[in-house]
Design brief:
Structural class: mainly alpha
Number of helices: 2
Shape: rod-shaped
Distance between the termini: 97 Å
Radius of gyration: 28 Å
Oligomer: single chain
Largest sheet: none
Mean pLDDT: 92
Number of domains: 2
Low-confidence stretches: none
Number of strands: 0
Length: about 90
Amino acid sequence: MVNETKDWEKNPHLYLQDDDGNFILKKDGTPKKKAGRPQTSTEKAIKAARATVGRKQRNIKKLEAKLNNARQALTNKKKQYKNLTRL
């Protein structure tokens, strides 16, 4: 009883916190628990993998757009060069 640690001290990730990292308190002064069922490690891994795949797909789209723009600029410069050398 003397060195009894509170649950929010052992598991602070299970309790609501504000932007500064302070616990959001209930009326009785104890920290408020997060709502909902906690995610399992596999759910977290699936969510992280899905986010990574989406991020990489968006990066690929951006790179493809840059490549297409560069190709278009190259063809325009070739046409311009061809027209200038014909004169």
